[in-house]
Design a protein that fits this description.
223 residues, mainly alpha, 2 strands, elongated
């Protein structure tokens, strides 16, 4: 699957994950870095084999036994390292998709709409902490700058990205408590009150388009 990915995206993922490895080594130590890296290599080889084979089962059983012998702190560091890696890869993919869309020629309206209604919501089961969401917003801004240059992380961006990734390793991925309706509303405010959103609202105003924001936060009571 990876060989079919666009080359700029592969370069972005590889260079970003490499910098995450440096952050893990500096924050958790060389020994933990090698544990994480060796685990990654073993699991990477397994993904090309059938999950039903005895050989795969034996490898996974041995990995489980070795992880079970670690302290809770060491287990957390391994789990958190992998969670950060997966979130970082997702950030690379979403940033690349936004970058590609921004390169498309903007279509001009032949006629303006009379009204635009934005319906926004914030999923009540969002498990990631607000600090993690804020950090990834900063990380995506660095990835965006990298894509606008050479798609790999240049020296000018490496130090900034390394700083954010080291912060990421210090912040719990999940919330410490169940999200409240107020948390959902705060998340929506963070999204709505951004430069891009406000520019859209001003554009609508300048073109005499009626614009409304609607939300059902707290209304579906599924949290």
């Amino acid at each position: 699957m990876k060989k079919h990915l666009p080359q700029p995206l592969k370069k972005l993922v590889n260079s970003s994950v490499s910098i995450l490895g440096i952050a893990i080594r500096e924050k958790y130590g060389v020994k933990m870095y090698h544990r994480v890296e060796n685990l990654r290599r073993v699991l990477s080889k397994l993904k090309h084999k059938s999950s039903s084979t005895n050989a795969v089962y034996e490898v996974l059983r041995e990995l489980y036994k070795s992880l079970d012998q670690l302290s809770p702190k060491e287990q957390f560091e391994i789990a958190h390292s992998y969670a950060c890696m997966l979130e970082l890869i997702n950030a690379c993919e979403s940033t690349y998709r936004s970058h590609r869309l921004s390169k498309n020629a903007h279509k001009k309206f032949t006629s303006m709409p009379e009204e635009i209604i934005f319906v926004v919501t914030s999923h009540p089961t969002e498990a990631r902490s607000p600090d993690i969401l804020a950090l990834f917003k900063l990380i995506r801004s660095v990835l965006k700058q990298a894509l606008e240059t050479s798609a790999s992380i240049e020296e000018s961006h490496r130090a900034v990205l390394l700083h954010f990734l080291k912060m990421l390793l210090d912040v719990p991925m999940a919330r410490a408590s169940k999200p409240r309706v107020e948390d959902e509303a705060a998340h929506i405010f963070d999204f709505v009150l951004t430069d891009n959103s406000l520019k859209t609202f001003l554009w609508a105003k300048q073109n005499n388009i009626s614009l409304a924001l609607r939300t059902w936060v707290g209304g579906d009571k599924d949290g």
